[in-house]
Amino acid sequence: MTPLLTTHGLSRDFGGLKAVDSVDFSLMPGEIRAIIGPNGAGKTTFVSLVCGRILPSAGRIVFDGRDITDMPAHKRVRLGIAYTFQITSVFARLSAYDNVALAFQRAQSGRSVHDGVMEALDRTGLADRAKETAGAMAYGHQRLLEVAMGLALKPRLLILDEPTQGLSDGEIAGFIALVREIGRDATVLLIEHNMHVVMELAQRITVMEAGRILAEGAPQEIRDNVAVQEAYLGGTVEAAS
Amino acid sequence: MKSDTGCGKAIALHLVVIAGLFGLGFVLPEYHHGVLARVMVLAVFSMGYNVLFGYAGLLSLGHAMFFAAGLYGAGLSMIHLGWSAPAGFAAGVIAGAVLALGVGVLALRTTGVAFMIVTMMFSQVFYLLTLYFSVWTRGDEGLVIPQARRGLDLGAMRLDFTDPMTRYMLALGLFAIVLLLTLGVARSGFGRVLVAIRENEERTKMLGYDTFANKLSAVVVSGTFCAAAGAAYALLFGYVGSTFASVQYSIFPLLWVLLGGAATTLGPFLGTLFMYYVVDIASGYTSAYMLIVGLLLILLILYFPKGVLGTVRERWLRWLP
Amino acid sequence: MSFGPHLLLAVLEGLVTSAVLALTALGLSLVFGVMRVVNVAHGEFFMLGAVLAWAISSMVPGHPSLGFLMALLLSPLIVGSVALLAERLVLRRLDYNPEATIVATIGLLYVIQQLALTFYGPEARAVPAPFNFRLQLPWFGYSGYKLSIIAASVVLMLATWFVLTRTRIGLVMRATQYDSETAQAFGIPVDRVYAGVFALGAMLAAVAAVLIVPIQQAHYLMGLDPLLLSFIVVIIGGLGSLRGTVIAALIIGVSDGVISVFFSPTLAKIIATSAVAMVLVFRPQGLFGTTPR
């Protein structure tokens, strides 16, 4: 099977700092992959390079056999790479419905926008809040709305950047179920600090530190990896941050 | 933004406004009849401005050039090339659309304050050009399109634009078309994308939209509406002068839209109507009407940035488009 | 007169324009640099300075130089207070939002212009020069007053440079310009710095206007040209850069004089305005500026 996404020697520096340092990475279709690592390890920069929000200093990115290194972000979204923001950035002054409609309407094919929007809202459990103004919704619901927008894009690769940050335990449980369900038709790349969520969801885990990949493997291997424990799990086991 | 249940109400409201203006055409005293015809044409100008400023959130300080492109496109082609009135109107609209495309491609490379200054400078260049080519434009003094040319022969019947009733109804026709087009834009997917760009451009990009292309379309639609207003002004009122390309005419639509309510479909008309009468009444007492314009700008931006209809929508009528 | 002296005369005239322009543009540049707002009413502060100079000097009896000196002292102070008032009443309440500020200062432009028309009238009036010394060159005589404008401008620019780079006030201003939030956190009264800078910017324009009224009459519409030229200078020189402002003022002032000899003034303005718009589109940091952080 060929990977859905690969990067070769992907690098990005800011000033003198190497935020991402020649990363070779590959992701199989249908996988749920988690990227973990301490703050400042370059996780968000790495996925930002993949989705095109920032451009790399060096290296290549290949998605589904196509070199997308120089492709603008909006075209990558059209290829099926969806990114949900780390900091909630729904359109605060628009209704939940309009937020999802924006994601859905561009790629609509023969279906009515209304049906598509309601389906995405339904899957995230927000159907009865369609008319609420996004900015006035509870934080947990805004996070879910963010996911609903990602879903409405019908992505092949859904990148979730710290999706459970700030959610309650009950909301997290619902969220895990949701991502599992999404994982049935899409490949998921998940940046996550909450190890419980990571262990529940990820089929494989990539550990980043100082812009490089430190280790990669199945959840159990990562748990047993000494280097990882020293760099990350050992010192600061981040339970809820 | 708006809920689907408001859709019927919104369309009904717009049709009522158009019908009301149609009715007023038969009952208004002569003076106000003339004023309203002029206000409707200028309201088209401010509706065009609103597409860019209200919906897409791009503040231009150079829209006089689009109005003037329509004005001169129609005026010069009719006077110097002997074109008919409809051909002149088309020339004006096309001139505005092409200018908007060119200006958009350049100016949209900038954002925020730089966008405001760049549009102002392009407009200033346009204004200076109308002065420089005074052989054809007669600069400040301007051109008058002869009365005989301002009409349309339809077989045996002649549509005379200098006749007040014809003029009123033509102005209303253009106003109604652009009003309904604006409503269409506001309710379309395109309008939703423009609002999204206004709210958060980065996020919009990450939903797969080419935001540059969408903003450029907004500039062109906006410029085309403004040019249509300019061309209609030339045909209906017969005067083509460089004043209409000056900075003041870039500020006016901003003021009208701010007053009536940005990103509301009827706000621009309301703002234009109100300001026209304020200036009209004020100039009866004092020559210092620019003082009122200045103070209103400051007070609006300080205390009332959403304008009349924007505030009405926020407080009472959520469905108002 | 042969070509050489003709060019010398054009350059001298250009230097006078540059001197006044540099001061005016510096005011605009400071306000933008520190406060990140564009003051569209800047040209009206210039106009107000000129009109007040006429009013003050015509009230002072005796030798013209006395009236002129009073004007040079009082006019900037009054204009500075007007600016301070506008800053407190309007700009601060807008939280210095760049776009809202532009709209508000456009309003201010109309208000000041209309008040000048109402109280000063539509006439153009000159202020007598403080002295009438003529410097006799081999080819032509040249106004000593005009040369003194250049000298005054150089002195004022040096003083500004000294304040900005060598004093505590300058340090506070630069800190605010660099990062207003951090400056606030370090106990710098950002709020008062903004008020002071806005007043200072207006005062620089007023000083420039007082210097120019003996050779160019005061008129209520005289603010537009300095505003546009200052924009041009500030954009070309790079926003908030003192060195860039001076260099750009020299280029614009001198070339304006020289170009006007060969082209019509309107065409010269068309070329200059389009060129500057293109600079803003393709090189927004200005020709001499560096990319911001």
TrEMBL record, chain A:
Keyword flag Membrane: no
**GO cellular component annotations of the record:** plasma membrane
InterPro entries noted in UniProt: AAA+_ATPase, ABC_AA/LPS_Transport, ABC_transporter-like_ATP-bd, BCA_ABC_TP_C, P-loop_NTPase
Keyword terms of this UniProt record? ATP-binding, Nucleotide-binding, Transport
Q: Which Gene Ontology molecular-function terms are recorded?
A: ATP binding; ATP hydrolysis activity
Q: Which Gene3D superfamilies match?
A: P-loop containing nucleotide triphosphate hydrolases
The UniProt record lists the ABC transporter domain at 5-235
Q: Which SMART domains does the entry mention?
A: AAA (SM00382)
Q: Which Pfam families match?
A: ABC_tran (PF00005), BCA_ABC_TP_C (PF12399)
Domain of life of the native organism:
Bacteria
Protein name per Swiss-Prot or TrEMBL = ABC transporter ATP-binding protein
Protein species of origin: Oryzicola mucosus
Q: What is the lineage of its organism?
A: Bacteria, Pseudomonadati, Pseudomonadota, Alphaproteobacteria, Hyphomicrobiales
From TrEMBL, chain B:
GO terms for CC?
A: plasma membrane
Supply the InterPro entries for this chain: ABC_transp_permease, LivM-like
- Any coiled-coil regions, as ranges: none
List where the protein spans the membrane: 12-29, 89-108, 115-135, 168-195, 216-239, 251-279, 286-304
Membrane topology per record: Multi-pass membrane protein
Domain of life, per UniProt, equals Bacteria
- CDD domains to which the protein is assigned, alphabetical: TM_PBP1_LivM_like (cd06581)
Q: Pfam families this protein is in?
A: BPD_transp_2
Q: Which UniProt keywords apply?
A: Cell membrane, Membrane, Transmembrane, Transmembrane helix
Where, subcellularly, is it found? Answer: Cell membrane
> Any idea which GO molecular function terms this record carries?
branched-chain amino acid transmembrane transporter activity
- Put simply, this protein is called Branched-chain amino acid ABC transporter permease
Organism, per UniProt?
Oryzicola mucosus
TrEMBL record, chain C:
Regarding the membrane, this protein is recorded as: Multi-pass membrane protein
- Pfam families attached to this UniProt entry: BPD_transp_2
| Keyword Transmembrane helix set for record | yes
Where is this gene product found?
Answer: Cell membrane
Q: Which domain of life is it from?
A: Bacteria
Kindly list the residue ranges recorded as spanning the membrane.
Answer: 6-33, 45-62, 68-90, 102-122, 142-164, 193-215, 227-252, 259-282
An example Gene Ontology biological process: amino acid transport
MF terms in GO: transmembrane transporter activity
This protein's UniProt keywords:
Amino-acid transport, Cell membrane, Membrane, Transmembrane, Transmembrane helix, Transport
Q: What InterPro entries would the database entry show? A: ABC_transp_permease, BCAA_transport_permease
Query: Can you name a GO cellular component term?
Result: plasma membrane
By sequence similarity, the record places it as follows:
Belongs to the binding-protein-dependent transport system permease family. LivHM subfamily.
Q: What protein name applies here? A: Branched-chain amino acid ABC transporter permease
- The organism encoding this protein is Oryzicola mucosus
Organism lineage reads as: Bacteria, Pseudomonadati, Pseudomonadota, Alphaproteobacteria, Hyphomicrobiales
